[in-house]
Design goal:
The protein is α/β, with parallel strands linked by helices. The protein has helices at residues 13-22, 44-60, 71-84, 96-106, 116-120, 122-131, 143-150, 157-167, 189-195, 206-219, 242-254; strands at 2-7, 28-32, 63-68, 89-91, 109-114, 137-141, 175-180, 201-203, 230-234, 237-238. It is 47% helix and 18% strand. The chain is globular and about 50 Å long. Bound molecules: D-glutamic acid (DGL). Residues 7-9, 11, 37-40, 70-72, 115, 118, 146, 182-184 line the site of D-glutamic acid (DGL).
Length: 255
C-alpha cells in the first residue's frame, strides 16, 4: 500500500523529497488542496473541514500511513485525525526543539517563521512553553510566502522586498537559528539565508518527520517494496496534465 502525503499546496513537496530520499522503496500519493490554499490565514474550523475532506479522499485510495506535510494542518487537526483513522497519521511541526538547543549553545536567539494560524494555535504555544525556558524564541508569520510559492516565485524582487520588509523590526544578528515552520518555506532558503548573518542555521521539520515515519513503518513491519512512484492529486482530482506534473518534478529537483 502507498503512503499519503498531504498539504494545502506545493509545500508538502519538501517532505515528499525527504521521503523519497529516506524511503525510496515506497510508493506515494501526494495530495495538494490547491482549491483551498492558503490555509494559514483562514478560520480554524473551515481549515479543519478541508483537511478532513482531503484525508478522507486519501484514505479511500488505500494507504498504510498519512503524513500531514503541513504545519498548519498538523496544529489544528492532527489529534482529531488520529482519533478517526486506523492507519498512522504523522504530522510535521516547527523544529523548535533542535533550534533552541543549537541557539542556546551559540548564545543566540531563535526566530520561528510560519503561518499565522500555526503561530496562534495552542499546539505551538505548548511546544514553546515546554522548550523555551530561557525565552529566546521569537516568531513571525509570513503568509505571503505561501502565495508566492503557489505562483512558483521564489527569488523574484517582490519576494526579497517582502522578506526585507517583514524582517525590518528584527535585529538579525542575534539569531543563531531560523525555523522554517511552514512546509512552503524551504523553497525560499536561498532568499532567506541572504538576509541573515552567514553562520545562521535554517531548520525545518521534514527530515525528522520522515525519520519518524520510517520508524513507524519498521516497527509495524510495513516497509514497502515500491519504487518511489508518486501519484499526484489536486483537491481530489488526479493530475494527468504533463505541464503540472513536470512542475512538481522541477520542485523536487529544486530541493
Ligand atoms: N504548508 C503549510 C504549512 O506548513 C501552510 C500553507 C498555507 O497557508 O496553506 O503550514
Amino acid at each position: 500500500m502507498k503512503i499519503g502525503i498531504f498539504d494545502s499546496g506545493i509545500g508538502g513537496v519538501t517532505v515528499l523529497h525527504q521521503a523519497l530520499k529516506q524511503l525510496p522503496n515506497e510508493d506515494y500519493i501526494y495530495y495538494a488542496d490547491t482549491q483551498n490554499v492558503p490555509y494559514g490565514e483562514k478560520p480554524k474550523e473551515e481549515v479543519k473541514r478541508y483537511i478532513f475532506e482531503a484525508v478522507d479522499f486519501i484514505a479511500r485510495q488505500g494507504v498504510k500511513a498519512v503524513v500531514i506535510a503541513c504545519n498548519t494542518a498538523t496544529s489544528v487537526a492532527v489529534e482529531d485525525l488520529r482519533a478517526k483513522y486506523a492507519f498512522p497519521v504523522l504530522g510535521i511541526e516547527p523544529a523548535v526543539k533542535p533550534a533552541v538547543q543549537a541557539s542556546e549553545a551559540m548564545g543566540k536567539r531563535v526566530l520561528v517563521l510560519a503561518t499565522s494560524l500555526t503561530l496562534k494555535e495552542k499546539k505551538f504555544h505548548d511546544l514553546v512553553d515546554r522548550i523555551d525556558s530561557h525565552a529566546i524564541v521569537d516568531k513571525l508569520p509570513l503568509p505571503n510566502l505561501v502565495q508566492f510559492a503557489e505562483r512558483y516565485q521564489f527569488q523574484e524582487d517582490d519576494v526579497i522586498r517582502y522578506l526585507e520588509d517583514q524582517l525590518t523590526p528584527f535585529d538579525l544578528k542575534q539569531y543563531g537559528t531560523v525555523v522554517l515552520g511552514c512546509t512552503h518555506f524551504p523553497f525560499f532558503k536561498a532568499a532567506i539565508r541572504k538576509l541573515f548573518p552567514d553562520d545562521v542555521v535554517l531548520m525545518d521539520g521534514s527530515v525528522g518527520t520522515v525519520k519518524h515515519l520510517k520508524r513507524v513503518l519498521e516497527a509495524s513491519g510495513q516497509t514497502g517494496d515500491g519504487t518511489g512512484q508518486v501519484t499526484f492529486y489536486t483537491s481530489g482530482v488526479k493530475v494527468e496534465d504533463g505541464v503540472l506534473l513536470s512542475q512538481y518534478h522541477r520542485l523536487l529537483e529544486m530541493l
